[in-house]
Design brief:
heterodimer; A: about 90 residues; alpha+beta; Alpha-Beta Plaits; two-stranded antiparallel ribbon; B: about 450 residues; alpha/beta; FAD/NAD(P)-binding domain; D-Amino Acid Oxidase, Chain A, domain 2; 8-stranded mixed sheet; 16 helices; about 30% helix; about 25% strand
């Protein structure tokens, strides 16, 4: 089952503002490993054409894994505003 | 600034248990929950050890939406093509007072939120707390870069609104964003946390009862150690709900992040679902939800200061969870810590002293309860779990020994005893295993 199909099962209420932002310079210069690319259970992180990390925050499960694993603190990570983000029904 | 007796940050199990206790004591209590409803942001494996929390407020559990009473406990060790399972089906686990139940948080938490409202508490969903308001202290707070035990929590900020409170019950969950920002505790380290993620797979109730050999309303809980986590500390789980099974993985955060290969963690769950001994259990089932959350696994050593002037920490926000391999707990601790937080807070309000000294009975109560006692007993477990052999060598060795015992081959058969002894000698009689055995005494 691919990740789009998995996330497609969940209810997301999309905010207009991202709740995860990548501190571009810290990410570029202080992080060689980019664990965000492999640890995110929703597979939201990817590299763009320039080799920079981008995040598809819209599908965020708000688990906090990237926040805890990102060693150079290159993420500005908040919960989405009240009533936005994932809304579980069965978990 | 508008002020209430108590603000509870987070309408999960700890927050709702605290609010219920306080509302019953007649305190003015307001629960702020950022989801559309309580349970909307919560993820459990999920099993709740109901027997321990039922006695705290018996009336709360009559009519509670519990899924199944767990009467079958299974633990399996797995390699890519083998699985050996130990099972205990015990009447003592079920009966009038079952030991534990599977639960779905969106149902259970919503029910408890209604109970809080019935008792006179306010539960406000869709409201995210952005900061804890503090005064005094050394000034380091706000930067999130150091502990500030001298600060007093005086309320919360949500958007443009500030609300004051005699006591703030911080039940914001494992990430502890607000408490960290206010300098009340430190952000949990990768080594003290795990990632849990799961699928909920719908199956008809009769199919679940047939497949897991259950009576009506009875449930099974199965844990799996071995190749399912590809050498990473952790395991897989399967819990039967009323009309679904929850199937997922827990992966040690530090071991997951320090891997050198390109393994994408989320793909391990698909591998687990496809395991030849697991796939038939799920046949015909349809995945209906996918969820994930960080889990605290640091044990008692990582429980922060539980209270201070004007605040208490409860549930996952206080690191109150325990992975003891066979029993995995957290929700019972959350409910009990909320219950004790309520009692301590009510006493502090009545005495007119909501300082750390006034709230000190919270910690005393937790120490006398199963919460800190059981965490203390398991103090050696987090260290033990770092032993990778638990997740690699032993599953391989146990399943190989079992396979050999059950194998009928073309050659001359050995006696059962010599097959067994040979297997034990080959896989279990080495210095590393002896060392591991000694370390197991710690748990």
């Amino acid at each position: 089952m691919d990740m789009d199909a998995k996330l497609g099962l969940d209810v997301f209420k999309l905010d207009t503002e991202p709740h995860i932002e990548i501190e571009r310079e810290v990410c570029r210069t202080a992080c060689a490993k980019k664990v965000c690319l492999t640890v995110c259970p929703a597979d939201l992180y990817e590299l763009d054409d320039e080799g920079d990390v981008t995040v598809n925050w819209e599908g965020c499960l708000e688990c906090g894994t990237c926040l805890l694993c990102c060693e150079p603190r290159a993420l500005s990570w908040r919960y989405p505003r009240g009533e936005y983000g994932v809304q579980y029904r069965m978990s | 600034m508008e002020k209430v007796d108590v603000i509870v940050v987070g309408g999960g199990l700890a927050g709702l248990a605290a609010a219920y206790g306080l509302a019953r004591e007649g305190a003015e209590v307001m629960v702020l929950e950022r989801g559309d409803y309580s349970g909307a942001k919560n993820v459990t494996g999920g099993r709740l050890y109901t027997s321990l929390v039922r006695d705290l407020c018996p009336e709360l559990w009559e009519g509670a939406p519990l899924e199944r009473a767990v009467t079958r406990e299974l633990i399996s060790v797995v390699t890519e093509d083998r699985m050996a399972t130990s099972e205990i089906a015990a009447q003592e686990f079920g009966g009038e007072r079952p030991q534990s139940h599977t639960v779905v948080r969106a149902r259970l938490d919503r029910y408890l939120a209604d109970k809080v409202a019935e008792a006179g508490g306010m539960v406000i969903p869709k409201m995210k707390v952005d900061a804890l308001l503090t005064e005094g202290g050394s000034g380091a707070h706000g930067a999130g870069d150091g502990l500030d035990a001298s600060a007093r929590v005086i309320g919360i900020r949500a958007g443009d609104d500030e609300i004051g409170a005699g006591v703030v019950v911080v039940a914001e969950g494992v990430l502890g964003l607000l408490a960290t920002e206010a300098g009340l505790c430190e952000r949990p380290a990768p080594a003290d946390t795990a990632l849990g993620y799961k699928e909920v797979i719908e199956l008809p109730a009769e199919v679940i009862e047939d497949r897991w050999h259950l009576g009506e309303g009875e449930g099974a809980a199965q844990l799996f150690l071995g190749s399912v986590t590809d050498g990473i500390m952790g395991g897989a789980f399967l819990y039967t709900n009323r009309e679904s099974v929850a199937l997922g993985l827990v992966l040690g955060m530090e071991q997951m992040r320090s891997r050198d290969d390109e393994l994408e963690s989320w793909q391990l769950l698909d591998g687990f679902k496809a395991h030849p001994a697991v796939a038939p259990l799920l046949k015909g089932g349809e995945t209906v939800e996918y969820s994930a959350h960080a889990v605290a696994e640091g044990g008692i050593a990582r429980v922060p200061r539980l209270l201070g002037d004007g605040y208490v920490l409860a549930g996952d926000a206080a690191g109150l969870s325990l992975n003891a391999l066979i029993t995995v707990r957290g929700m019972d601790f959350a409910i009990a810590s909320g219950y004790h937080a309520a009692a301590a807070t009510a006493a502090a309000l009545a005495a007119g002293d909501t300082s750390a000294a006034g709230l000190a009975s919270y910690e005393r109560r937790l120490r006398e309860s199963f919460v800190l006692r059981d965490l203390q007993t398991a103090a050696g477990v987090p260290g033990l779990l770092e032993n990778r052999r638990l997740f690699t060598h032993y599953p391989e060795a146990v399943t190989e020994l079992m396979r050999d015992l059950f194998t009928v081959g073309p050659g001359p058969a050995s006696k059962l005893s010599s097959t067994g002894l040979r297997g034990l000698r080959r896989r279990f009689m080495d210095p590393a295993t002896v060392k591991d055995l000694l370390s197991f005494r710690r748990i």
